[in-house]
Design a protein that fits this description.
Blueprint (H helix, E strand, L loop, with lengths): L2 E9 L4 E4 L2 E4 L4 E7 L5 E10 L18 E2 L2 E2 L1
Parallel strand pairs: 1-5
Antiparallel strand pairs: 2-3, 4-5, 6-7
Length: about 80
């Protein structure tokens, strides 16, 4: 009998991973992989990859002359 399955995953923007010799992510977000057992039976896996969007933002603050503040581990 033919066995089918799905692999749905999410990666960070720009990341990739390899499944059955095929690189997914980085522009290749879906496909089908055929796996063959030692007995010759085929299984089909449908691969779907989602990508987290890049997060960005702005941080504005005011400090007095000579003062500093720390943001994300960096002193400004």
């Amino acid at each position: 009998p033919v066995i089918t399955g799905t692999l749905d995953t999410t990666v960070c923007t720009g990341e990739t991973f390899i499944f059955n010799g095929t690189t997914y992510g980085g522009g290749n977000f879906s496909g089908s992989e055929i796996l063959t057992s030692s007995a010759g039976c085929d299984s089909t896996v449908t691969v779907t990859v989602n990508e987290f969007p890049i997060q960005s933002g702005t941080f504005d603050t005011t400090v007095c002359v000579g003062e500093t503040f720390v943001f994300n581990g960096t002193t400004y």
